[in-house]
């Protein structure tokens, strides 16, 4: 069990130091995945998105991470996958953090005024959707009252942060990519739900900050 107050204090300090970045991403990266810097040398244009790793204390005081199962929305290359709340930078957003906060409110209903932001993780390029994603870490002081966007969110997962620190929860499988080929990748096995790809890579950096 990872106590919420302890986890928040650890993350506050760790996010003010050098981030583990690519080294942490590599722990949960698919076999073919290259560092973001390598992709950005090749890609002439890309979209920009932002996500929020949102933490809250469970009834027992355990640090808990909010994830969501996406719907099968048409045109979403990440449909049916597990992700952080987040989305595309829109005109009128005053910076990447505002995008992340806006998306959390739109997708899962948590007002930005309730979220205390701890800092940012390392940006990550996602080839299937051609997005460069900027992840942020924040928390609320009690379990959120959700109001889900039914077009985008199928379900909410509330996963203890300590779950991701346990080696036995990391497994490997072959997945069908959005580009139509098979991808061998590690994943977190949460009660039969497979958390893989970019989300798992960002979680791996969050885990590295706690472990270090």
General description of the model:
- The structure is a single chain.
- The chain is an alpha+beta fold and 212 residues long.
- It has one domain: Nucleoside Triphosphate Pyrophosphohydrolase (Alpha-Beta Complex), CATH 3.90.79.
- 25% of the residues lie in helices and 33% in strands.
- The protein has helices at 4-14, 21-27, 36-42, 96-108, 197-211, and strands spanning 47-57, 63-70, 82-83, 86-88, 116-120, 124-126, 131-139, 153-160, 170-176, 182-190, 193-196.
- The strands form 2 sheets. Strands 1, 2, 3, 4, 5, 6, 7 and 8 form an 8-stranded mixed beta sheet that branches. Strands 9-10-11 form a 3-stranded antiparallel beta sheet.
- Helix 2 packs across helix 5.
- The protein is globular, with a radius of gyration of 16 Å.
- The model is unreliable at 74-78 (pLDDT under 50).
For this entry, give a set of tags.
alpha+beta, 25% helix, 8-stranded mixed β-sheet, 212 residues, Nucleoside Triphosphate Pyrophosphohydrolase
């Amino acid at each position: 069990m990872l106590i919420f107050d302890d986890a928040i204090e650890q993350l506050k300090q760790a996010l003010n130091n050098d981030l583990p970045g690519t080294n942490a991403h590599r722990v949960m990266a698919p076999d073919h995945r290259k560092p973001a810097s390598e992709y950005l040398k090749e890609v002439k244009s890309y979209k920009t998105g932002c996500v929020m790793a949102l933490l809250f204390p469970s009834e027992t005081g355990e640090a808990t991470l909010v994830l969501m199962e996406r719907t099968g929305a048409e045109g979403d290359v990440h449909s049916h996958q597990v992700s952080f709340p987040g989305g595309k930078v829109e005109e009128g957003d005053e910076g990447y953090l505002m995008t992340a906060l806006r998306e959390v409110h739109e997708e899962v209903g948590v007002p930005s005024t309730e979220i205390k932001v701890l800092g940012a993780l390392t940006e990550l390029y996602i080839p299937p959707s051609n997005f460069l994603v900027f992840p942020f870490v924040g928390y609320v002081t009690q379990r959120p009252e959700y109001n889900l966007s039914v077009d985008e969110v199928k379900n909410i997962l509330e996963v203890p942060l300590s779950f991701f620190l346990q080696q036995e929860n990391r497994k490997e499988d072959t997945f069908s990519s959005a580009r139509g080929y098979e991808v061998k990748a590690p994943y977190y096995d949460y009660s039969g739900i497979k958390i893989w790809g970019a989300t798992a890579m960002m979680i791996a950096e969050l885990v590295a900050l706690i472990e270090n």
